[in-house]
Amino acid sequence: MNGFKISDLNRILERDATDTTYKFALLRALAFVCQRFSHFCIIKDGLVWLPTGLLVERWLAYYYPLIGSENFIPQKNAEKDLDKPGLKIAFRAKFRVVTDYYLGKGGFSTFWVDYRKETIPHEINRSCLELAKAIWYQIIRYPMKHLGYSVSQKYYSLIKYEKRKIISNNSKFCQDLLINDFGLFSISEDFYQTLLLLGGYISGEYSIINKWIDFSVNADSSGNIQPRTVFELLNMSPESERDVLEAKQHYEKIIYKNGEIECVWSGRKIHSVKDLHIDHMIPFSLWQNNDLWNLLPSHKKVNAQKRDMIPSLTLLESRKNRIIQYWTELDELYHDRFIKEVNIALTGTKTADNSWNLIFNQLLEKCQYLIETRGLSEWALE
Predict the structure, then answer these.
(1) Alpha carbons 44 and 98: distance in angstroms, whole number
(2) CA distances from 379 to 281, 308, 370 (A)
(3) Which residue, of 211, 234, 257, is where some domain finishes?
(4) SS (HEC) of 222-279
């Protein structure tokens, strides 16, 4: 579809027929992936190509709380739970195997930590692979095919895809596998730019989420599902405090050893762990990122001023040396994790010798995008 317009997006939301929540999940995932993973973009002949596995990853995050819920929440018109005859979304049974396995083991957050850290237990690894492949098939077969039909009257008018690789049952289920082996999808540059500008409203605001909630509640013939329940599940984050712990322990050790540590933003000396806050450079509420590079020591009073704002480019430049010093320390302690997280979140490269200037410049670009394109509030020291 050439010359994609913002009005087309509204028409797709309102008029594209849907019998499941797949359309909402795909649009939400597209917005998320375009905004967070632009460093993976390949632009050719007016098309923007990105890894389809990143969409699969988002669907895992979106559907896990819904399918793992104690209460059955329909994701298809007239859908029935697995123990009852009737319609089902295609991957519910495969998903339930995974959610049942993690029941009593920490649930969603434990699964996500295992996935991100490549520690999925062997006994559930194959089930995770089969689930990912089933989700991939549903994405390319249904919502990708139909998205935009109300505008163009053509199938696959907005999104095209490459076939994924053949994946061995012995493959390790992890983020790298999804990114590298699940093929690519393409959208037009116009559609991509629209998602960059408006994606926050799709992936983080109420337009998509409210429709998803309404669908789930209206599809429940029992009348027991409350909108608040679905809203809370859709807004769950798989990140956990365990991801912050390693950085926090490192900074606390510096205080115990040296008697102080320097606030990354103000340069103020922090003499007590009581005054130490672990600041998300890019706020967690906006980016949901607990990567080591994003976790820096801040004085609690300074962190209270920053709140959920984006550090200004001027402030970042003025504190560049201190930021890189903390990165260097974390890299020395947790090299594999640090480099992997930097590659996935910032640079998009596979080399283990990223220069600090390259990483820092990518951070600047992310913050500039959030401030200038997304219009989020920037923060500088008072």
Answers:
(1) 38
(2) 11, 9, 12
(3) 234
(4) CCCCCHHHHHHHHCCCCCCCHHHHHHHHHHHHHHHHHCCEECCCCCCEECCHHHEEEE
Instruction: Give yes or no: residues 84 and 199 share one domain.
Output: yes
Distance CA 69, CA 86 (A): 19
Q: Does any domain span residue 1?
A: no
Residue 375: per-residue pLDDT: 72
Q: Are residues 225 and 248 in the same domain?
A: no
Q: How confident is the model at residue 122 (pLDDT cuts 50, 70, 90)?
A: very high
> What is the number of structural domains in the chain?
2
Q: Is 59 left (phi over 0), alpha (psi -120 to 50) or beta?
A: alpha
Asked if 179 and 60 sit in the same domain, the reply is yes
Domain limits for position 175: 6-234
The span from the first CA to the last CA of the chain, in angstroms, equals 48
Tell me: do 81 and 222 sit in the same domain. yes
* pTM, two decimal places: 0.74
Name, in order, each residue with C-beta under 8 angstroms of 193's C-beta and a sequence gap of 6 or more: none
Q: Residue 324's Cα: distance from chain center in Å?
A: 25
Point out the domain boundary residue: 234, 260, 278. Answer: 234
Q: Do residue 328 and residue 252 come from a single domain?
A: yes
List residues bridging with 184 in a β-sheet: 51
Residues 42 and 190 in one domain: yes
Identity of the residue numbered 159: I
Output the average pLDDT for the chain.
90
| Residue 167 φ/ψ, nearest 5 degrees | -110, 120
Q: Return the pLDDT at 3.
A: 65
Instruction: Enumerate residues 6+ apart whose C-beta is below 8 A from 347.
Output: 39, 354, 358, 359, 362
Dihedral of the alpha carbons of 113, 115, 120, 124, in degrees to the nearest 10: 120
Q: Give the pLDDT confidence score for residue 340 in this predicted structure.
A: 92
C-alpha to C-alpha distance for 195 and 197, rounded to whole angstroms: 5
Is residue 44 within a helix (H) or strand (E), and if so which, with residue range? Answer: strand 42-44
With tokens 């519910």, the residue in question is 92
Tokens read off for 30:
């597209």
